[in-house]
Amino acid sequence: MELRVGGRFRLGRKIGSGSFGDIYLGENIASHEEVAIKLECVKTKHPQLHIEAKLYKLMSGGIGIPQVRWCGFEGEYNVMVMELLGPSLEDLFNFCSRKFSLKTVLLLADQMIIDFGLAKRYRDHRSKQHIPYRDHKNLTGTARYASINTHLGVGL
């Protein structure tokens, strides 16, 4: 059975996953454009996908920023369909016989992926002043990739 989201996107194979959901290869049924489709369970305690979609729309037009093609919900999932910018890191790793040279690692590090689903404003939108730091914050995201400040409980 063919799975569709947003009425016009076909869901393909899984190409990634994170702490808040899974990412699939997809296709626009009308134009045959390949897209990335992110799914997040609507029952998630702290939904992040809608925040991520807002940030992508705010940064729209920036270099290396994918265009959001559709955002909404389908069945039991929050869904974001976005432009596919290229192969996944896993696909690149497999293409390179599961070995990256130091040069490749350094080139990738220069443009590593930011989890915009966890992003927060750091300035008050009215006053433009930096939002004060808060102590004793719980860890958000994956401990392995969190900053030292996050581990120490420092947050915006």
UniProtKB/TrEMBL annotation:
User: Which EC number(s) are documented for this chain?
Assistant: 2.7.11.1
Q: Does the record carry ATP-binding as a key word? A: yes
Where in the numbering of this chain does the Protein kinase domain appear? 9-156
Gene Ontology molecular function: any one: protein serine/threonine kinase activity
Instruction: Indicate what this protein is called per its UniProt record.
Output: non-specific serine/threonine protein kinase
- The entry's keywords: ATP-binding, Kinase, Nucleotide-binding, Serine/threonine-protein kinase, Transferase
Tell me the superkingdom of the source: Eukaryota
Where ATP binds, per the record, is at 38
The keyword ATP-binding belongs to this UniProt entry's keyword annotation: yes
Organism encoding this protein: Meloidogyne floridensis
